[in-house]
Design a protein that fits this description.
13 helices; 6-stranded antiparallel sheet; single chain; 32% strand; 9-stranded mixed sheet
């Protein structure tokens, strides 16, 4: 532990490199997570910052995982609280997209090399361009689906490459991209082209080098792959340079000679293609994206980055599978299916629930958003290359692990040991894979191919032959054109009113946030138990999923919601729907109930119990004695009252005036109860309409500040790519500390842009001392997330970097960074560039010349360079100008001598040229 001056740096040495998984690492001091950990490049050292001086007296320091924060194996729940679940028996009502069609298809591998492309946001690292193509042999363009795997081991065997990537010559490069054959072949046999992308280089470097843990890199890799195949589709040349071999690789090269790859070894049926085989074979007007695990955040990143392009791709569908959502991205205009496994042992807080929660009302767009919970599934078994028994290297059951005596292996709900077999809801690896294939193939056939017969599982929860006996729960938010919102419960200014013994509060987020919240917390449970409100890596204090929290003491209590006059005619809709879950105060093993009453203009009523419409909606989800702070989750589920039943009871569905939700005894049998409620609406099943158009994006910038002494502030810029077209809002987070003496404070601030505005600056508290430190600077992450009306840009992450200005112990101070008077003005100058002025008469080689750089911060060091050659540095004056006296090197050719000036704090760059005089014998 090192005292950096009001901030303590904890460094933990590991016995071996950290396991590569989707979750984010933390450091736990005496069993409590003190902060997110940064991995060293070797993967054997973790570093975290904290302002808590109590860490100086720590007795234990251990590595932890973010999604498991607040969980324990020691706590127990009463035996009566353990839910014993049985397989759900349903009648097949929808066609199964897992069934192969009549199209013949080929499978092939493309490989441009291990270091064939620059990785976005992972400076200086190049990654592989490799993957698997599944292509119908029938001619003509085929709808295109792109698959992206998640964060898994990249290399197997020893010795490892100390640079992490590429794999060493004695290692196996694990082909995670080859693990989705079930989905890819089901689609290809029905006429779809599929490309599954490798992302091992990103997996090997994201935690160590990417501010956003690789989300931007994954999204850009998808877009780069689309660009590559778009050229191939047009018959244009495709050539990439592989830095690993020093060779230029053509598309023809990439498609041949791949028989020795690991992906070919496990699938001998792959064949070689030629560039001619790809020409005209992809329909780029219909593109769907699936991403697993961190790949799930990758496809949301691809969708948002795409919308920042002047000519975006026609991405009409995305499917995050068991995703992380570290950045709380919102995605407009694209139908989205999020698949969440209840027994996920990697992303065990199911933070991907935020994806649709955050997007569903953020843009007023017209697309379907659906969440599907697969109750017996874990994280890994949707990919055969991650599944024991189906591949040899670096495989595991992410829930049960490798210790058969662990609490997870013996868990009554999700365990796989013989002792758990009588009560466990776990699916076999084969069954889980088949469920994934059915869901993924069905979603893309419905949303990319327009085969609407496959849509029902994602709008109404209809079952297929594969899912008929599986507990799969669908919660859909229908498109805006197919939905009339009566009350979303997102604001305290709700139209709902409590009556009788009931009380109603609009709540949001999980208790214990470091930043004061606008709304009371919805839950005090462990983070892993509340996917709607769980904290995330880069937006942990941003408001999460507001809902109504209703409680009652007897059957007289409930809420009433008036139907607005313009929505009273519900004849265009098929159901009255809402999301609900039993409150955390309802005991495990029990449940509560609500009676839904509809009132028409003549006062006639119709009532139905939620338990009749969805028997599991208000029953606590499965809990275990072994993992009571991971399971027993609260997940909002859909209750749907058919309006045909309302009409059959004699009510006029074209004149509905009021909806009541009244408390009732559930399976617990008690008259009192409590429930969360959300999204009360009239709706009908529909896909809506995906639109492809540029959307204004939002970015920030890394901001440098002098430490100074005492309390102060630094302002960070938040910049739109164009003036706001409508009122838009974003959340800016800085991951500092709540301690008053922290170098940088913690904030989570909502920023609103009025129409026409482009830039705002956000104040961040700072605190400096007069003591030298061992670190020349300390950095804290900035994120701009949870956007409404705009999307996250490619610079939505940055840092506040505090320069140590009191001396560096056993080191040198960094160049002075000065003080920014106006971050927005500075951002504008940074975009345009500074200025360089040089003497007009040419200067001979070997003689002095004065160069003046302007447009910089007062007090910052401005460095002048010619290419890679440093020419000197000078502190900018009060007007932001710096004049340097340089010598034109002997031998400099006559003409122009290019120079560049760079500000150490502003990052402003100015370019110019010094005129060099021709001198016979010298140049």
């Amino acid at each position: 532990m090192t005292d950096l001056g009001s901030v303590y740096e904890i460094e933990l040495e590991l016995d071996e490199p950290l396991e590569i998984k989707s979750d984010a690492p933390t450091i736990e001091v005496d069993g409590v997570a003190v902060g997110f950990a940064t991995e060293s490049e070797s993967g054997t050292t973790l570093t975290a910052l904290t302002s808590d001086p109590a860490v100086a007296d720590a007795t234990t320091v251990e590595q932890g995982w973010f999604a498991e924060a607040g969980t324990t194996d020691e706590a127990a729940v009463p035996e009566s609280a353990i839910v014993e679940t049985e397989a759900v028996s349903e009648v097949e009502t929808a066609p199964d997209a897992a069934v192969h069609g009549a199209y013949a298809y080929t499978k092939s591998i493309y490989r441009f090399g291990d270091q064939a492309i620059d990785l976005a946001g992972i400076g200086g690292i190049r990654g592989e361009v490799e993957g698997k193509i599944y292509l119908p042999t029938t001619g003509g363009p085929r709808p295109l689906v792109v698959l992206l795997h998640g964060r898994h081991s990249s290399c197997a065997g020893t010795p490892a490459n100390p640079l992490r990537w590429p794999c060493s010559p004695t290692q196996v490069s694990i082909p995670s991209y080859a693990g989705y054959d079930g989905t890819a072949e089901a689609l290809a046999s029905n006429g779809y082209a599929v490309i599954s992308i490798s992302a091992n280089a990103i997996n090997s470097n994201d935690n160590q080098l990417a501010l956003d843990y690789g989300a931007r890199a994954r999204g850009q890799l998808i877009l780069d792959t689309l660009s590559l195949f778009q050229k191939a589709n047009k018959g244009e040349p495709v050539v990439l340079h592989d830095a690993a071999t020093g060779q230029d690789v053509t598309l023809a090269d990439a498609l041949t000679g791949n028989g020795g790859t690991e992906a070919a070894r496990i699938d001998p049926s792959v064949v070689e293609l030629t560039p001619a085989d790809l020409k005209g074979r992809f329909d780029f007007s219909r593109i769907g994206l699936m991403g697993h695990s961190r790949g799930g955040e990758g496809v949301t990143s691809a969708a948002t980055l795409n919308q920042g392009l002047a000519k975006p791709f026609d991405i009409v569908s995305i499917l995050p599978l068991a995703p992380v959502d570290f950045g709380r991205m919102t995605v407009p205009n694209v139908p989205t299916l999020v698949v969440l496994p209840y027994c996920d042992g990697d992303v065990s807080n199911q933070q991907g629930q935020h994806m649709n929660d955050d997007s569903r009302h953020a843009f007023g767009d017209d697309v379907l958003r659906s969440d599907v919970w697969v109750m017996g599934a874990n994280h890994n078994f949707f990919n055969t290359v991650w599944t024991p028994g189906r591949y040899e290297f670096n495989v595991s059951d992410d829930w049960s692990g490798t210790n058969p005596n662990s609490a997870r292996a013996n868990d009554e709900v999700c365990g796989t040991s013989p002792s758990a077999s009588a009560t466990s809801i776990r699916l076999s690896p084969e069954k889980q894979y088949d469920v994934g294939t059915s869901l993924m193939a069905g979603w893309f056939r419905a949303t990319v191919g327009g085969e609407t017969q496959f849509l029902d599982p994602f709008t109404t929860g209809a079952k297929t032959a594969t899912t008929a006996d599986i507990d799969v729960r669908t919660v859909a938010t229908q498109p805006s054109s197919a939905r009339a919102d009566l009350e979303t419960f997102e604001s305290p200014a709700t139209t709902a009113r409590a009556f009788g013994s009931a009380s109603l509060t609009v709540c949001a987020s999980l208790d214990g946030r470091a930043v004061p919240q606008e709304l009371p917390a919805c839950s005090t449970l462990a983070s892993a138990q509340v996917p709607h409100w769980t904290t995330v890596r880069f937006a942990g204090d941003v408001v999460a999923t507001p809902v109504g929290r209703l409680s009652w003491s007897d059957a007289t209590g409930g809420i009433t919601v008036p139907v607005p006059a313009k929505l009273r005619n519900a004849s265009a809709y098929t159901a009255l729907t809402f999301r609900t879950a039993a409150d955390e105060t309802v005991p495990y093993g029990g449940g509560t109930d609500l009676v839904i009453t509809v009132v028409d203009g003549k006062g006639k009523t119709f009532s139905a119990a939620a338990s009749e419409l969805n028997p599991g909606a208000l029953v606590r989800l499965p809990q275990s004695a072994q993992n009571p702070t991971t399971l027993g989750k609260i997940v909002l589920q859909k209750v749907s009252l058919p309006l045909s039943e309302v009409a059959a009871a004699g009510l006029k569905v074209n004149d509905l005036r009021e909806v009541r939700l009244t408390g009732a005894p559930g399976i617990s049998g008690t008259p009192d109860g409590a429930a969360y409620v959300s999204d009360l609406a009239f709706d009908r099943p529909a896909l809506g309409k995906a639109t492809t158009k540029p959307v204004i994006s939002v970015d920030t910038a890394t901001t440098y500040v002098e430490e100074r002494s005492g309390a102060g502030e630094v302002r960070v810029p938040v910049v739109l790519s164009a003036p706001a077209k409508t009122a838009s809002e974003v959340y800016v987070s800085v991951m500092g500390s709540a301690a008053a003496t922290s170098k940088v404070g913690i904030i989570a601030t909502k920023v609103t842009f009025a129409k026409g505005e482009v830039c705002k600056s956000v104040p961040v508290p700072t605190f400096g001392d007069d003591v030298a430190s061992t670190a020349a600077s300390t950095a804290f992450t900035i994120s701009v997330t949870n956007t409404r009306g705009v999307v996250m840009g490619d610079e939505a992450f940055g840092q506040v970097v505090v320069r140590e200005d009191d001396g560096v112990i056993d080191g040198e101070e960094l160049p002075a960074v000065g003080v920014a008077a106006d971050p927005c003005a500075e951002a504008n100058t940074r975009a345009k560039g500074g200025k360089i002025a040089t003497p007009n008469p040419p200067t001979p080689p070997g003689e002095h010349v004065s160069v003046t750089a302007s447009g910089f911060r007062p007090g910052e060091s401005v460095a002048l360079a010619a290419g890679d050659t440093a020419l000197g540095a000078q502190i900018a004056d009060a007007k932001g100008s710096a004049t340097l006296d340089i010598v034109i090197p002997d031998g400099t050719p006559h003409g122009s001598f290019a120079v560049t000036a760079t500000g150490a704090g502003s990052s402003i760059v100015a370019t110019g040229a010094v005129k060099v005089k021709k001198v016979p014998g010298k140049n």
